[in-house]
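Request: Have a read of the protein record below and say how the chain folds.
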Amino acid sequence: MSCALTTGFTLDCRQSNGGIEAVYFTEIANKATLTAASGVITAFTLAATKKFFKYELRKKTGQLEQNIQVNNENGTVFYEQTLTVKLDKLEVNKRNEILLLAKNNLMVIVKDNNGKYWLVGETRGALLSAGKGTTGTAFGDMSGFELTFTGEEPELAKEVDSTLIATLTA
């Protein structure tokens, strides 16, 4: 069988943290080359003058979920990637950039709170699928934007080697 299992897992120490520290966006059309081995991206270049743009997030305002979608009748499996982020403050520069995010098919690098980087939308892209701008109601409520990006991929998100980030964002 070509899908034979290869390993087991032991119980790890309690050293895993939830949440997202930052996200990086670029258009999927900017991808030039990508090399991966065993689920880790080891080489990644973008078209000339193109880069990923970093969006820093406040604590507890971002999440990446990857849902396994199986259709037994059709013999198919794919991975639905859902990224949610909150950007504080209603500001014109954020508004204008969100308009551009909504018009593009994107690749997103997600930096989690464990210092790992994950690529969302590697082959088919991710789209801004929902969102809102809100003033909140009470004085202490969030005023800003809540955005949801979704993608469907043939594999779970690959880890991006952290040594590639500086080049991809320069």
Remarks:
- The radius of gyration is 17 Å.
- Residues 20-28+52-157 form one domain.
- The chain is about 10% helix and 50% strand.
